[in-house]
Design brief:
By secondary structure, this protein is an alpha+beta fold. It has 3 domains: 78 residues, Hypothetical Oxidoreductase Yiak, Chain: A, domain 1 (Orthogonal Bundle), CATH 1.10.1530.10; 162 residues, 2-Layer Sandwich (Ribosomal Protein S8, Chain: A, domain 1); 43 residues, Wheat Germ Agglutinin (Isolectin 2), domain 1, CATH 3.30.60.50. The chain contains 11 helices and 12 strands. The strands form 3 sheets. The chain has a 7-stranded mixed β-sheet. Helix 1 runs antiparallel to helix 2, helix 1 runs parallel beside helix 3 and helix 4 runs parallel beside helix 5. The radius of gyration is 20 Å and the shape is globular. The structure holds nicotinamide-adenine-dinucleotide (NAD). The site of nicotinamide-adenine-dinucleotide (NAD) has 27 residues, from strand 7 and helix 10.
Length: 349
């Protein structure tokens, strides 16, 4: 499996995005979003998605120069129209509005409609927590998930990310789909050449759980933890699509791999000013205590320790900064194809 230095992979992403026509002013933030995601080992949403983003750009499904506009602002609440701009461009603008509102009122909530794919949700919750606020990022996605006890898709993989401020930017960070895993994880296994998927990930079109890769790819993703995942997925849809006044589901919202029109997904960003409750330092001490308390549980048989959300990714980031980012053979092949087509040099592996 090729291993690439993160700086080389970043340069490659920059070159690909530039060759695809992404405006010069947005290339760096887009490339950073991808490489930061790979650094944290969320490989399903790093450069693996680059060919899909390029495809969308080439087919004209994103408005490359659009930054969106504020439709309405009232107290702590703001409604944004992303006008099909790149998700990696409009999401930080919305985060910064949420931070501005939270600084003024204690809390800021921004709903955005007519959005494109913003990648891994942690990027945006973490942008808010890096500014000293509790950050929450949500988005809806194309229908790939049946509601519990259903066999037809009605929900997306609708991720939730929550990130808390931390003095060394290494705080508790939850980032998860409301399905057992994100669709790109299935794709990731396929690109690794796997022919089976873990149980609990997918069901066939009759609603029968499957571990066969070919059936899973034609089937549907299962809600996280049964009916509770259905509830969480719907909660995200309410707080994004319904509240943003955008398209809610069905044929209006499409995915990164669907072709022919803008995705029209919805994003929601929430910033909470901890200082309105207690000094930030006190909150951080209480977080340290909570994390230590949780981690003090004796590990279950077969495990050596208890981890909390964000911990595996911080560790991966430290390791990958030093030792490079491993790229699955199938992903490397797709990047080679992209590089050849766009006449861009592949990074050294
Ligand atoms: N943009 C979109 O449309 C979209 C849609 C769905 C998912 N996503 C993204 O897909 C990515 C993957 O989501 P997923 O649900 O497949 O991820 P996942 O199943 O790997 O879960 C990741 C979460 O679990 C935590 N975790 C992992 N191992 C742990 C352990 N041993 N102990 C405690 N916590 C642990 C991680 O810190 C992280 O918060 C996320 O970045 C998500 O935002 C994006």
């Amino acid at each position: 499996m090729p291993v690439v230095a993160h700086s080389d992979l970043y340069k490659f992403a920059e070159d690909v995005l530039t060759a695809s026509g992404v405006p010069a002013g947005y290339v760096a933030q887009f490339a950073s979003a991808l490489i930061e995601t790979n650094l944290r080992s969320v490989d399903s949403h790093g450069v693996q998605l680059l060919p899909h983003y390029v495809g969308q750009i080439e087919r004209g499904e994103v408005a490359l120069h659009a930054t969106g506009k504020v439709l309405k602002e009232s107290g702590a609440c703001l409604v944004y129209d992303a006008e099909h701009g790149l998700g990696q461009v409009t999401a930080p603008i919305c985060c910064d509005h949420a931070i501005r509102l939270a600084a003024a009122t204690g809390v800021g909530i921004v709903t955005a409609r007519e959005c494109s794919h913003f990648g891994a949700a942690f990027l945006w919750a973490r942008r808010i927590s890096d500014a000293g606020y509790i950050g929450i990022a949500l988005c809806d996605a194309s229908m790939q998930v049946p509601p519990w006890q259903g066999r037809e898709p009605r929900l997306g993989t609708n991720p939730i990310s929550v990130s808390v401020p931390h003095p060394r930017h290494r705080g508790w960070l939850l980032d998860m789909a409301t399905t057992t895993v994100a669709y790109a994880k299935l794709e990731q296994l396929k690109l690794k050449g796997e022919t089976t998927v873990p149980s609990g990930w997918s069901q066939d079109r009759e609603g029968v759980p499957t571990t066969d890769m070919a059936t899973a790819l034609k089937g549907l993703l299962m809600p996280l933890g049964g009916y509770k995942g259905s509830g969480l997925g719907m909660m995200v849809e309410i707080l994004t699509g319904v509240l943003a006044g955008g398209p809610v589901f069905g044929t209006q919202v499409t995915g990164l791999r669907h072709q022919g029109r803008p995705m029209r997904v919805n994003h929601t960003f929430l910033a909470i000013d901890v200082e309105r409750f207690m000094p930030l330092e006190q909150f951080q001490e209480r977080m340290e205590w909570l994390i230590e308390e949780v981690k003090s549980a004796a590990p279950a048989k077969g495990y050596s320790e208890v981890l909390v959300a964000g911990e595996p990714e911080w560790r991966a980031e430290e390791h990958r900064k030093e030792n490079g980012i491993p790229i699955a053979d199938g992903v490397w092949q797709s990047l080679e194809d992209l590089a050849r087509r766009l006449n861009v040099a592949l990074p050294a592996a």
